[in-house]
Amino acid sequence: MTETLLATLVSGVVLGSLYALMASGLSVVWTTLGVFNFAHGALMMFGAYIAWTVSEAAGLGLPAGILAGTAGAAFAGVVIERLLVRPFYGNRNMLLVTVMTTLAAMIILEKGAQIIWGARLKQLPRLIDGEVSLLGVAISAHEAILLVLAPAVLIAIWRFTVLTNTGRSLRAVGQNQDSAALIGINVPVAFALAFGLSAALAGLTGALLGSIRFITPSMGAEPLVKAMIVVIFGGLGSLGATAGAAYIIGIIEALLILWLGLYWTPFVLFLLMIVVLVFRPNGIFGGRE
Amino acid sequence: MGRLLDVRDLFAGYGPIDVLRGISIHLDAGENIGLFGPNGHGKTTLLQTISGLVRPTSGTITFNGADITTAQPPKIVEAGLVQSPQGNTMFGEMRVQETLELAAFSRRARGKRNDNLRRVFGLFPRLQERGNQRSKTLSGGERQMLSIGAALMCEPGLLMMDEPTLGLSPRLKEELSEAIGKIASDGVPLIVVEQDIEFLLRAADRLYLIEHGEAVQEIDRANAPDHAEIMELYFGKAGA
Ligand SMILES: Nc1ncnc2c1ncn2[C@@H]1O[C@H](COP(=O)(O)OP(=O)(O)O)[C@@H](O)[C@H]1O
Ligand SMILES: [Mg+2]
Q: How do strand B158-162 and strand B190-193 relate by DSSP bridges?
């Protein structure tokens, strides 16, 4: 019994690592631009396909593939910002308009992937073969790398936003655009940067997930929904709250799968999200305002 | 003596109706100017337009001989034209020192960051004490100090301040007005918007009365009418 519980916890933390990478990307764009990017899951998928193309089709190896997937998604993110989001800054209905334009971006990316890469399932190899024992539970070495890599990347981004001028400028723009402009920060550049950084996180997640699940044009849909639940659960604010919520949701999901099975798990997760929205609209870590 | 800032026949606003209706003001090297006038007549809009946050519909703005009429805000800051805006709360979640360091963002200010930080802390010791505090926890006076401090971190060649003592207690007002005097005597040219004429007469060499988006009166301190006359000019017209 304790063994299954431990195994469930470990798989929950693995899930949580993926959600943390996805959700913090979503939250970077939200806190900087006030845009909810529905193409975030599709960017993840795009990163996975680019990684596959570089690693498998071109035969350059998985590390090169992961780098290319991350960079490719970042580039696609900047293009989406430029073409589908920037024209609507200052628009009174910007939030609503960008819901539609980022949904359009999602559909374009998904259809595009289908046309370019076809319908056949693809998969990436693992970074390392073999298994590692964690708390007496055997997990693949690839998942173990994920466990370490996700927090490392998030801590690096957090330090970037706290310590560097460029990182600080992203936070400043999210809090007060006019004040940011008046101290010489180029607001559109900061927006593009936030979008690129966010998309890079999505692409990285996709490239890592491509070794665990099959790569398909619609593979981003479920992670996007999970990232939304995480972001609502943790409150849109600090990276730390988002990451913490990601791990909690990952563990809850793993436990629900164990106790209720796959069928009822999404239902209960959404119920939980609604309960949080009702009682703690700013998330479990957010203040009550 | 060069002309530092020249605003000519400027029209600007937020929608179909212009708030600024052909306003012209200027500032020569070596002088400070003050803007006053009733609320809602376009003083803030003028500064926002000069800073590039509001787009003019016609007219020209020249700074240091360069046309900046359609320049973007970062370009204008990079040229040395800096504003401490009205009621500015800056970045609520950011810490005070972090905010000041970030304000040295432009290329022009980057190299002087540490010198300017020392200068700001010398001027406002309270900001140093509160260095680690988030800006949203500051009092009104401290926020104003932070806003002016951030503007100084931009290494201004001309500093515009929009109602720096608005809503402050008399004691704090005194403290800020002293600091503003020090900034001026350090050689930073100033444009100050204020309701307090006493304050303006001390800080500025020339005053403009702004009404209905125009500079309707220019007052030179050297041959200024006496104080009572200015008050009458102001309240007489504003009340009319
Ligand atoms: N952001 C804005 N959007 C629309 N109208 C505005 C805005 N800011 C100011 N106004 C209007 O412009 C006019 C001038 O305002 P303002 O420049 O703030 O005057 P002042 O600084 O002299 O008090 C006012 O009628 C005000 O209502
Ligand atoms: Mg005003």
A: parallel
Instruction: Please indicate whether, in this complex, the C-beta atoms of A181 and B82 are within 8 angstroms of each other.
Output: no
Residue A251 and residue A12 in contact, taking contact as beta carbons nearer than 8 Å = yes
pLDDT for B1 beyond 90? no
Cβ–Cβ below 8 Å for B74 and A186: yes
CATH placement of domain A2-279: 1.10.3470
Tens of pLDDT, residue by residue over B18-44, are 999 999 999 999 999 999 999 999 999
Chain A residues inside the 8 Å CB shell of B150? 179, 183
CB contact under 8 A, B52 and A165: no
Mean pLDDT (chain A) is 91
- Which range of residues forms the domain containing residue B213? 1-80+190-240
C-alpha to C-alpha distance for A51 and A58, rounded to whole angstroms: 10
ipTM of this complex: 0.92
Residues with a CB atom less than 6 Å from ligand 1: B 14, 19, 39-45
Residue A206 to residue A22: CA distance in whole angstroms:
9
Q: What is the pLDDT of residue B144?
A: 95
Q: Report the nearest-CA residue for atom 18 of ligand 1.
A: B44
What's the CATH code of the domain at B212?
A: 3.40.50.300
Instruction: Give per-residue pLDDT as tens, A10-58.
Output: 889 998 999 999 999 999 998 898 899 999 999 999 999 999 999 999 9
8 Å CB contact between B105 and B150: no
Q: Which chain A residues are within 8 Å of B52, Cβ to Cβ? A: 181
Nearest ligand to residue B16 Cα: 1
The residue type of A134 is: L
Instruction: Average the pLDDT over B176-199 and give the result.
Output: 92
In a domain, B66, yes or no: yes
- For B91, which of A162, A171, A186 is closest by C-beta distance? A171
